[in-house]
Amino acid sequence: MLAAPSRARAQGPVALNHIALYVVDLQKSADFYKHALLLPELTEPFKDGKHVWLRIGPHSQLHIIQGNKAQKHDINTHLAFSVKDLPKFMAHLDKLGVRYGSWKSEPGKTTPRPDGVQQIYLQDPDGFWLEVNDDKF
Predict the structure, then answer these.
(1) Edge to edge, what strands does the sheet with 41-42 contain?
(2) Which fold has domain 17-67?
(3) CATH class of 71-137
(4) Cross-strand pairs, 55
């Protein structure tokens, strides 16, 4: 185990800045995150038509980048988001026709965590797995 230098400890832990997803179809993925997850779009500096930046938290962003080839993704590797009202969010997904379900892929079902938090799982257009839960942390 690495020992943290005392100066680094005084600085505190690292903070999440952004997550980058390398996608096949930029517009399709950007539309999914903007409409299904209701993430606001940010100005991105590249202006090359290959990037879309979205706000995912007060100081965090999701960077979507064009150019990937289709891949299969495992549910164990996923991004997790929290919402205030999970049933209301599920109704929003239903209205958009976005498929979701429990960890075991039971359509329209939730998965309870041991601490009582309810979760659903869905995939974006590239097959990346997303969890949406009602954690009140």
Answers:
(1) 18-23, 60-66, 51-57, 41-42
(2) 2,3-Dihydroxybiphenyl 1,2-Dioxygenase; domain 1 (3.10.180)
(3) alpha beta
(4) 61
Task: Note the Cα 22 to chain centre separation in Å.
Answer: 13
- Rounded CA-CA distance 110/83 in Å is 14
- C-alpha to C-alpha distance for 135 and 61, rounded to whole angstroms: 20
Segment 26-50, tens digit of pLDDT: 999 999 999 999 999 999 999 999 9
* 27 closest CA partner among 50, 2, 44, 4: 50
pTM as predicted: 0.89
Does the pLDDT of residue 126 top 90, yes or no?
Answer: yes
Distance (Å, whole) CA 81 – CA 72: 21
